[in-house]
Predict the structure.
Amino acid sequence: MTDEIIDLTRYLKREPTSDLPKGTMSLWGADGERSRFALPLWRIIYLAQGDRAVISWSYTERQARMHPFVVLDIAADPARTDVDGANVPKFDPDEGPSLIDFEDEGIVIFLGSRAGRIWTLLVDGGGGRPEPLARPAREDILFLAGECAGLLFLRDLADDAPAE
């Protein structure tokens, strides 16, 4: 049996658009149990036609200040961890899960809240998507975001977020 490296660009059905090696994937903050976020985030990036997914949190009273929790970046190494809170809508802690589609600027998904923190998933980059997500892609993304929310709140990974 031989070990082979899987070329992920073959599955994406698109040509690599950078000088990075084919299939570059940079994970930040995905140590231990957090590594479980990698697969749903990769699938969300693909469906949203982005190149970075960030699960981040903010305090309910200071939602403009975002803190990255897990980042998967398929366009940069090391992963870009900056999140501009001005581009992320304010969410009410009691709000239900929702997806906001900014088309060419990406998507933001409200994952939930716990212990005074708002949790969101941001997907951006990828050169822009000129039209809204198709219904099947939107439904799949929401399903995968639910998987991320389950990891955060049912497996208590949200409790691992450090204080400022």
